[in-house]
Amino acid sequence: xxxxxxxxxxxxxxxxxxxxxxxxxxxxxxxxxxxxxxxxxxxxxxxxxxxxxxxxxxxxxxxxxxxxxxxxxxxxxxxxxxxxxxxxxxxxxxxxxxxxxxxxxxxxxxxxxxxxxxxxxxxxxxxxxxxxxxxxxxxxxxxxxxxxxxxxxxxxxxxxxxxxxxxxxxxxxxxxxxxxxxxxxxxxxxxxxxxxxxxxxxxxx
Length: 205
Description:
- By secondary structure, the protein is an alpha/beta fold.
- It has seven helices and seven strands.
- The longest helix has 22 residues, at 130-151.
């Protein structure tokens, strides 16, 4: 298929992106690793021994960061519909986290341990239709919030990617109803023109 001007421009920007180059140099699977590191340096989410669930983990940049920071007693459980190459310190489950059999596998791996952090950098396959894409992004965020309500320990945290636009204010209200504190983060590694933000909720109400 012939590349469009937009995709060529994106490819050029991606190749020349300093975070992409740094990720390759340092062995991170994606530039997103730097977003999580920056947020964690500020908010201290990834404590040694913590149990972390990474929703929509592939290719694994966030799981890599989490595994390093919660080691040696910590546990990172990563879920995704797509395959993911193994990462030391990460247990991967391939499947849809909305399905009962996938949740059962997760619960078996957790055993009696409660989750300290649920993180979601998920984004849907973009259609190019802004309203449709925004609705899909917010739907994924809502599913992550539901999952967090069910699996977080009382003082746990939920970090989720959202896009500003339709549904954002409603979702922010849901976050504030669920958590005692909610803050907005826009890490330096997020592209300036990107509408993405990260919402961080801490301590279930």
